[in-house]
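tool_call: predict_structure(chain=1)
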Amino acid sequence: MEKGNLSINSENIFPIIKKWLYSDTDIFLRELVSNACDAIAKLKKLGTMGQFKIDENDKLKVVVRLDEKAKTIQVIDNGIGMTADEIKKFITEIAFSGATDFITKYQDQFENGSDIIGHFGLGFYSAFMVADKVQIDSKSYIADAESAKWVCDGGIEYEMDTSDRLDRGTTITLYVSDDNKEFLNGWKLKEILAKYCAFMPVEIYFEDASKKDDEQEDKPVNDTNPLWLKKPSECTDEEYKEFYHKVFTDFNDPLFWIHLNMDYPFRLKGILYFPKLKHELESIEGQVKLYNNQVFIADNLKEVIPEFLLLLKGTIDCPDLPLNVSRSFLQNDGYVTKMSKYITKKVADKLNSMFKKSRDEYEKYWEDISPFIKYGAMREHDFYEKIKDSLLFKTTEGNYVTLKEYTDKNKDKAENKVFYVSDIQQQAQYIKMFKDQGMDAVVLDTRLDVPYVSFLEAYSGGVRFERIDSAVSEMLKSDNEAEIDAESLENLFKEALKKDDLKLKVENLKSDEVSAMIELSEQSRRMQEMSAMYGMDNRTFPSDETLVLNANNNVVKLLLDMKDERKDEAEMICRQVYDLAVMSHKPLSQEEMTEFISRSNKIMELLAEK
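tool_result:
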């Protein structure tokens, strides 16, 4: 058996780093600034351990300095610094992490993880994504340590010498390549800092070499103590709103928010906002920003954040995220699943709490948050199980009820059945008929409600949903049956409408105001809706519509008297009755509407003549 050691061709390492290590070129600034923050974090840790005394007047900070003329970008810190030996150890040995080495060395001093950002020892090399040459000037915190300089042009060779840096800390100088001149722009760099470094734990300043000292910005570009790090009890409503406006540039106030704060079995903090929607599912463009130790990682990572929660806006910071070397994607890890379940539970708990303790307020928000909740229930079964008793339905009377409240109220008239309307105006006739019988229907009038209804039927314990115009004539039948020649009426309508296959029945309805109505079984209507959603031809499914004539209506009675002596007028009224019934069921086509209006004028002319 032969054994050996794996080898790496060092000449190929930089092309690999440049092309494959990071998904976005602008990440180089995040990595270098993160390393600078780490250098300061290490110095602070040594200070707390009594191994170094930090002068109270020594302002610890990171400076990003642009010199467009010299074609350089510098990242400067006054942190722990490095000796020449440490530069050789941490920089020239690729993938040897100084952060990991520091944590290992002082591991007994760290509680529940650390606030050191770096782990893999590769972030520094992202500099070569934009630079032809990179120079390090560093002076260690150790008093008698000599300053050191390291220079590399992206090949396997480097040069080392003493540096002229006098103060503790490190300066990374990037000599930007011609291919990346876009980064020699102040607005561009500040945009990158705002994206990745807005909440890093050390103050970061931006300087432009083309400006005088008194012209430089004297404010840090970041907020070192973001709102999510505070205890919920310490935050005011105004602070939550201000943070929302600042981070998401949304001028509308959020409806409400959830403050996440967990320390075990993993550390996770954050704020999730429920935005006010302008239209259905607008918040599919929501934005949940993921951070690791206050360093921005990515927007909307589905591995950590359940997909339906991506409809919200928010920030989540988890120092324990199991990131890969580029920090751009997550590895499969048990922590990730636990985080996702925790976030789902916290959202469900918040909604349930509002429902139980502040139902009036919960109902006020329902129209805005219902798309999110409906989508979440269908996408995440655990979420549905937690939230199912807090699902609301708006009735045609404008009240809000739960599924149980609705079925309990109507169990004597329609056991375990929920009637709903999909268009309040179009189905107004049916709504009135229901109201006259002391019944109500719920409003389910969005595209999302089409699959939502089927979902609820599958998981709500046998409850069936029927649209208000689906085979309801049996419920609305009168006990007093009027005698009428149903066969003659059927023949008259078939001849007038020229529809030999017309399904028609005559019923004695309780209301005499309605001449006719169209019934379509719930199953047939859903098949038609499904075919429309998928762009299929509705003719694929045979029509199952039935015209129900009301024997108690005076117009219907009159038709039998007219059919012999005034047949043309009777047939015209038949077509009018049919179109009126259809209009309460679905819109007329352009041609049908034109004919309906013309026919209406003729009928009025006939009435005027009499």
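agent: The CA atoms of residues 406 and 418 lie 7 Å apart. Proceeding to next step.
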